[in-house]
Amino acid sequence: MTAIRETIEAQLSGESGDKVRVDRFLADALQELDYDVSRSQVQQWLAKGFVQSGRTKLKPSDDVVLGDVFEVDVPGETPVEIAGDDVEFEVVYEDDDVVVVNKPRGLVVHPGAGHTRNTLVNGLVGRNTVLSPLGGELRPGVVHRIDKDTSGLLMLAKTDLAYHALAQQLREHSVERLYQAVVQGRIVHEYGTVDAPIGRDPKNRQRMAVTGHGKPSVTHFKVLERFRDTTHLELQLETGRTHQIRVHMAYIGHSLVGDPVYGERQHANLMQGQALHAMTLGFRHPRTGAWLSFSAPLPDDLMRLLELLRGES
């Protein structure tokens, strides 16, 4: 039996005082990486020595400390080999170190449970793009993701140097990530910030939620246009948690139009997936240090939604 080694670094808040057990932290982190893993499985792996860290002895009930790094050998049945597929997406920029793509709505970023073929990574492999292995066997080159039903820009690392440099920029919050979205309800404020920690929903482990045990998460927004009962927003990510914009907007009572998980039934028929687009992406080139910035226009379905809403106002 083979195993996939995953490296997981604790980036918990050192200010909240909340404590998180090792087994819970690792189960949540692995679920975010698309593994169907429970706390009891993690406890078994700890007992069998499948989890390594800098500590001499690691117990499931130990508290996670900021900066902890865990090496987890996730058992697998067969060796992993990502097949190349003919997948439609736009390459916005590419050089020897990095590739930036405009992902269409409906496309999964990398292989995982339920999606072994025809992902963005399969498409890059199909066009002979060599990606850094540091993202993991199923996520080569992937330093950040956007959801299947979110469209727009993301960057992938082709070299190990690029992977480390881009990941560091994400940790430092120096990557520029601007989104546009349409949300339920009329937001009266011109600008706003949602500063609320995000973690696994304790009532539904398939969802994320604002929770006291979550990771620090900050989203800034400004109003672009108001309609009868919806609002067009620009949003800026300061952090990049799983489903961050979707969770934060639902938390303040303005879920995304078309969001099948965090949204409402109202306007659900107007979009196939959430009305969210990663429009602008900026970062320093990992080798030269030059600032690179890219923009992807709103996709046709989101443009049609805005035209419809304008007509109703």
Structural summary, described in words:
- This protein is of the alpha+beta class.
- It folds into three domains: 2-76, Structural Genomics Hypothetical 15.5 Kd Protein In mrcA-pckA Intergenic Region, Chain A; 80-172, 2-Layer Sandwich (Pseudouridine synthase), CATH 3.30.2350.10; 177-278, Pseudouridine synthase, CATH 3.30.2350.10.
- 19% of the residues lie in helices and 29% in strands.
- The protein has six helices and 14 strands.
- The protein has helices at 22-32, 39-48, 120-126, 160-171, 244-251, 300-312, and strands spanning 2-9, 51-52, 69-76, 90-94, 98-103, 151-157, 176-184, 191-195, 198-201, 204-210, 218-226, 230-237, 276-284, 291-295.
- Strands 4, 5, 6, 7, 8, 11, 12, 13 and 14 form a nine-stranded mixed sheet that branches.
- Strand 13 (276-284) and strand 14 (291-295) form a beta hairpin.
- Helix 1 packs across helix 2 (39-48).
- The longest helix has 13 residues, at 300-312.
What distance separates the N and C termini?
60 Å
Low-confidence stretches: 13-17
**What is the element string, with H for helices and E for strands?**
EHHEEEEHEHEEEEEEHEEH
What average pLDDT do the residues reach? 89
Task: Report the CATH C-level class of the largest domain.
Answer: Alpha Beta
Shape: globular
- Provide the number of structural domains: 3
CA radius of gyration is 20 Å
CATH topology of the largest domain: Pseudouridine synthase
If helices are DSSP runs of H or I spanning 4 or more residues, what is the number of helices? 6
- Summing up helix and strand content along with how strands pair, one would put the structural category as alpha+beta
Helix content: 10-25%
**Strand elements, count:** 14
